[in-house]
Amino acid sequence: MLSTRQTRSARPTDKARNTKQDPVDNDDEAQGTASADEDVNDNEGQHLNKASSTSPSTFASNLERFRHGKASTAEATEPAYKASRKRPLTDNDAAATTSSPTKRKKQSSKYAPPSKYAHLPKLLDILEPGLICVFVGTNPGIRTATAGHAYAHPSNLFWKLLHSSGCTDVRVSPEHDVDMPKWYAMGNTNIVERPSKDAAELSKQEMAAGAPVLDEKVRAFRPEAVCIVGKGIWEAVWRWRYGRPLKKDEFKWGWQDERERMGKVEGWGGAPVFVTSSTSGSAASLKPAEKEAIWRPFGGWVKSRRKERFGTEGRIDLVKSEDTPDLADATSKGSE
Fold this sequence. Notes:
Layout: H1 2-9, H2 11-19, H3 27-51, H4 56-84, H5 91-98, E1 133-137, H6 142-147, H7 158-165, H8 180-184, E2 186-190, H9 204-221, E3 225-229, H10 231-242, E4 254-255, E5 273-276, H11 288-310
Parallel strand pairs: 1-2, 1-3, 3-5
Antiparallel strand pairs: 4-5
Helix pairs in contact: 1-4, 2-4, 3-4, 7-11, 9-10
């Protein structure tokens, strides 16, 4: 009789072994299995309490069946907990989770001939004689050419850096670029006239060809200083002057050596050059804080020159009086 009872009590074990073939998909199912086991144990405990009031032989047989049932239940729940464990990620899994099939890598721009953007209007220079400084950009972008105002793309940091550095006392919008000479005694031009999507669509040859044109503009309008907005522009000027690329140890941000003045002519020593970072949104080699640190010395110099010449660090048109000299007549220590 004991062997017969043992055979019957082994049936739950067979069922439990069959459950190994069905893996658990998530932790919720594993928790459900554990709850079911607790119910089984509670029911078995109730039978055990009832058995305590019966004969010893019946109690012994129930106890033996309870032991077999508990073992089979634990055996059934063990795969459920094991199946809920997460498998360690392999290199292939990590690559699959980090890559997105819908996200495409941004392609770099290539040279584009002038005919590609011939339909876009040219951006006019904002120049007057006797300005404190003239900013020199690479060339107009598509958004700038379409709007007809300098640095018009929302991602461009030019107007923001102009304010944070101290060149202007308020943040000026691109629509007021034409007011910069009368407001702050500052102007703007580019080394390449034609528009493009970005500087990568320009050739090194046309960048270098724009250098003598830029030098002639400086000679004609004679600003106190020239601010080069981007390392690539200064590299083009250097290539035109010396017929070779600018070496890494020859480049520096900020004020350049006195021999690098632009627009030299008999009777005028030329304008000193300050090289600052590009403000383009696509120029991400420098952090915003690093760009501000490069711009700040130039902004401080501009404020001091405006204070000396016009009696204010801010807008000169708001304080202009009969005693305030015109731009063309104002003398400049920086251009002596």
